[in-house]
């Protein structure tokens, strides 16, 4: 059985106090979430230690949204994977389309970041997804397979156990336009097949693949019912505990 995950990507939202309240509200309702569905929250860096205290003793795991591509030293403004581990993170998101688009995150950098995350005991939520024009040109499968091959194919099958993939079509992120369940399932099946060609069927079947992009309580059930969709990476709707929990309850 693949692990089912619903993860909240808070992006650059909430004050620390608001983030703590949000985490408390999620922890208070975690019992409502079906067995076998794991929750993760990814607050901004400044909130991590405060949120970690709230999550202590609960099954909700903590994730960062990014990490540095250097282990430590004179890299002003960066936060190292070791620091994230120290702050209580179990995961870091890497390769989010906003980071690829606005902060020049390349495959080369992502390979280094993943290695540093692993060295420091972090698991990785690795994001992939095509832009609207790429889908309209019919290139979406090529774009996603390239994002997977260029960054993940250097890993061992053992390391792949520490990777969760999030398929997030860029045109669906924060736009209110969700991929249809059929579009999402088609891409998830393709991602699994792509993993299978390189790593073999076992890794392909065991890798958790999340859907992200305007996932909300009203559409989560249909998406999560698809055989290759193992949960969601939730942006906007993860900022309200009730919505986040309702999404997790869609299983
Ligand atoms: P959204 O964001 O749910 O607000 O579309 C998802 C994401 O970018 O992770």
Overall description:
It is a single chain. The chain is an alpha/beta fold and 251 residues long. The protein has a single domain (4-248), classed as Alpha-Beta Barrel (TIM Barrel). Helices cover 44% and strands 16% of the residues. It has helices spanning 16-29, 48-55, 81-86, 97-102, 107-119, 132-136, 140-152, 157-160, 181-199, 201-206, 217-224, 241-248, and strands spanning 4-9, 37-42, 61-64, 91-94, 123-128, 163-167, 209-212, 231-234. An eight-stranded parallel β-barrel has the order 1-2-3-4-5-6-7-8, surrounded by six helices. Helix 1 links the parallel strand 1 and strand 2. Helix 1 (16-29) packs parallel to helix 2 (48-55) and helix 5 packs across helix 7 (140-152). It is globular and about 45 Å long. The chain starts with a strand and ends with a helix. The model has no long low-confidence stretch (mean pLDDT 97). Bound molecules: 2-phosphoglycolic acid (PGA).
SSE topology:
Blueprint lengths: L3 E6 L6 H14 L7 E6 L5 H8 L5 E4 L16 H6 L4 E4 L2 H6 L4 H13 L3 E6 L3 H5 L3 H13 L4 H4 L2 E5 L13 H19 L1 H6 L2 E4 L4 H8 L6 E4 L6 H8 L3
Helix pairs in contact: 1-2, 1-12, 5-7, 7-9, 11-12
The structure holds 2-phosphoglycolic acid (PGA).
The site of 2-phosphoglycolic acid has 13 residues, from strand 8.
Q: Report the count of strand segments.
A: 8
What is the CA-based Rg, rounded? 17 Å
Can you name the CATH architecture?
Alpha-Beta Barrel
CATH class: Alpha Beta
CATH topology (fold) name: TIM Barrel
End-to-end distance:
14 Å
What small ligands are held by the chains?
A: 2-phosphoglycolic acid
Helix-strand string: EHEHEHEHHEHHHEHHEHEH
Average pLDDT over all residues? 97
Biggest beta sheet summary = 8 strands, parallel, barrel
SS-based structural class? alpha/beta
Strand content: 15-25%
Q: How much helicity do the residues have?
A: 40-55%
């Amino acid at each position: 059985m693949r692990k089912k995950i619903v993860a909240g990507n808070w992006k650059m939202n909430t004050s620390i106090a608001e983030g703590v309240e949000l985490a408390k509200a999620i922890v208070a309702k975690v019992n409502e979430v079906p067995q076998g569905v794991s929750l993760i929250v990814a607050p901004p860096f400044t909130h991590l230690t405060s949120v970690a205290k709230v999550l202590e003793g609960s099954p909700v795991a903590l994730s960062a949204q990014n990490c540095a591509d250097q282990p430590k030293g004179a890299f002003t403004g960066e936060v190292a994977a070791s620091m994230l581990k120290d702050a209580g993170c179990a995961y870091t998101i890497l390769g989010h389309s906003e980071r690829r688009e606005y902060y020049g995150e390349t495959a080369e950098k992502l390979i280094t970041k993943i290695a540093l995350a692993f060295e420091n005991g972090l698991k990785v939520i690795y994001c992939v997804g095509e832009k609207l024009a790429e889908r309209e040109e019919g290139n979406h499968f090529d774009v996603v397979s390239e994002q997977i091959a260029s960054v993940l194919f250097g890993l061992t099958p053992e390391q792949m156990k520490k990777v969760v993939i999030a398929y997030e079509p860029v045109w669906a992120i924060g736009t209110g336009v969700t991929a249809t369940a059929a579009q999402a399932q088609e891409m998830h099946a393709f991602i699994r097949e792509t993993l299978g060609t390189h790593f073999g069927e076992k890794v392909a079947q065991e890798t958790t693949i999340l859907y992200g992009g305007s996932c909300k309580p009203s559409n989560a059930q249909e998406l999560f019912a698809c055989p290759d969709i193992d949960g969601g990476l939730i942006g906007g709707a993860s900022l309200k505990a009730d919505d986040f929990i309702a999404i997790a309850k869609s299983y």
